[in-house]
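It is worth pausing here to work through a concrete case rather than discussing structure prediction in the abstract. The textbook approach is simple: state the sequence, then state the predicted structure, then interpret. We follow exactly that order.
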Amino acid sequence: MTMTTVEDSGLPVMLDTKDIAQIFKRCNLAVYAEARRRFYREINLNPFKHQSESVLRFLEWMFWDWFAYDCAVSGELSGDEAEDMCITLESDVGCGISPFLAISEFLYETDPRIGEREIHDLRDVDETNFASMFWIHDSNAAKGTMKLEDVVHGGYYELRGGEVAAQYDGAHGGLIVNRVAHVRGHWQFCAIPVYEAHRPDAPEVGEAIAKSFRDTGYRPDFPGLVRFFYGRAKDTGMDLEDFQRARENGTLQAIMDGLRN
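Step two, the predicted structure:
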């Protein structure tokens, strides 16, 4: 199991979501396979559009993150093959625990690298993490911080940005879609971004994006965020390129009116 932390660095310990998915693939293939089917059904890729190998690898990483953080299984791993095969994938909200927490608790019992401080970090990540679309209000490489607005759910967050803060140093605009968690008193990223863009960065663009979510009440879950950028909308069957093309050639309004009728 890969753990991303540096001893005595003050940073929280993190688990690699690929490793979590692969552990479940080995010990309970039925859970892994059903979760993977659900994810790819939700993101709704266009089967007639060629996807590059890099995009397909990226989408698989998105599956690992979703499986680890957002799925729920019926219990913790025990290390006993027969018992672990009885774990099921839960469908009802509020039932079960995340694969991330299931693996964390198992490692706490079996891996000397996971002590009290580390399991506290992992439990905090599990309890507080969420994915959303954020507008960048400020990024400061010297302080290693970013000030973000959650344009989907509302609210402002100051994050320990690390390398991302350096990448966007001085930015007062731009969009980043990612997962954050509150650990050791700070919000920070806990996954790779679904999408990021330095431009457009005008304040009115960020305000317009936030307003569109407020007005429609649309609150996409994680597969919905991935689908927005890489898959096809459930109502129109259009992907992002189709949408932009329809807007440019003036047919978008007719398409939307047809759906309402």
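Step three, interpretation. The first helix runs from residue 17 to 27. The chain has eleven helices and six strands.
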